[in-house]
Amino acid sequence: MRRHLIAIASVVAVVQGLAGRASVPLAQKPTLFSRGSYFAQRAREDAARAVRRALFGDQLSQLQVGGPRAIPDGGRVVVTGSTSGVGLDVAREVAALGYDVVVCGRDEKKLERAVALVGRVARRGVESARFDLESLTETRAAAAAIGRADGLVLCAGCWPTTLRYTEDELEAGLQANHLGHFLLATRLLDAGGVARVVSVASTAHAATRQDRLELDDARWTRRAFDPLEAYAQTKLANVLFARELPRRYAVEAVSAHPGAVDSELFRDFDVALPPDPFGLLPPTVDASIGTLSTTAQSFLKGVVGSAPVSVFKKPRDAARDVVVGLVAPGLAGAYLSDGEPTETSPGAADDAAAAELWDWSRSTID
Length: 366
Fold this sequence. Notes:
Layout: H1 2-18, H2 35-56, E1 76-79, H3 85-96, E2 100-105, H4 108-119, E3 126-130, H5 136-146, E4 151-154, H6 172-191, E5 196-200, H7 227-248, E6 252-257, H8 289-304, H9 315-327, E7 335-337, E8 340-341, H10 351-365
Parallel strand pairs: 1-2, 1-4, 2-3, 4-5, 5-6, 6-7
Antiparallel strand pairs: 7-8
Helix pairs in contact: 1-2, 1-8, 3-4, 3-9, 5-6, 6-7, 6-10, 7-10
C-alpha cells in the first residue's frame, strides 16, 4: 500500500496540470506559472536522464578521480537524517569517498546501527550526533557538540498527514524540514569552515497552490491543514534557503531533488490517505489504491513517450545524486535533479521571497 501511495504522490501534480480537473478556484491559480507544464517538462527530463544513466553511469561515477572537489579531501561532513533511507546511503557514499562523517538522528539504537553500517565502508572516522530537529533546544546543543564541519547535507525530513505541533509550538513538518535545519546550519556556519551546504529538497516545491510561501499562517491556524500543501511549502523553503544562504555567509549552497524513493518519509501514509487538492481522486474515493497507481503510471508514461520510466529510485541511487551536489565543483547555486542542474519554479527563484524567509526563520528560532 505504501508504494502505491508514493506513486500517486509522485505524479499527482502532473495529473492536476494536464488531466483537466481543477480543485483550486481560478482566482487562486498563478497566472504566469503552470504547474502541469512544469511537472511534465521535469518528467521528460527525468526520462532522458534515465537513458543517459543506463548508458554512461550516474553523475557521481563520472566525476574525475583525483579531480577537484567542493569539499577538501579528508574533510568532515555532517549528514542529518542518516539512520535510514537516503540519508544513510548518503553517509555511506560520503564515507567511502574518504571523508569523516557525522551521522545524525534522533534514535540512539538506529544511530548505533547506522554508525556500524557506515563504518564498514568508511576510509576515515565515523561519529554520531543524537538530536531531534523538532526540538530547537536539542538542535542548538547538537550544533555546539558537533562544532566544526567542512560540508553539510540536510537530508532529514518528514511528511505529517495530520496537524501536529512541536514542543516549540511550531508545525512539525516545517520545523523538521526547514527550521531545525536552518538553526543547525547557521550555528555550524558560525563556527566556520563549511565549504558547501546541500539542502535536500523536492520537485514538490513547485506544487504549492500559489507558488509561494504563506509565512503569515505557518502554524495553520487560519486554514484547514492540508498535508500536501504543507509538505510542498517546506520543500519550497528548502530551495529558497539554499538560494539565500550564500548571500548571508561565505559558503556554497546547492538544493537537490533526490527523486521518489520508498523511505520513512512516507511513514504516516500507512494510516491516512493524503487529501486531494489536485483533483486526482473521484468524488467517491472507493477505487483501489492499486488501480489509482496503475493509472498514474500509465499517465506518466504517456507524458514521456517511449523512454523508460521508473517512479521509484533505490535509496543508494538517490543518495549518490545528492552526494554529487556535495562534492562536484561548479554547482554552487544549482538546483539538481538526478545530480544534474535543472529549473525550479519561479517562486523558488524569487530573491525577495528568499530574503523574507531568512528573516522570518531567524526571528522564529531566536
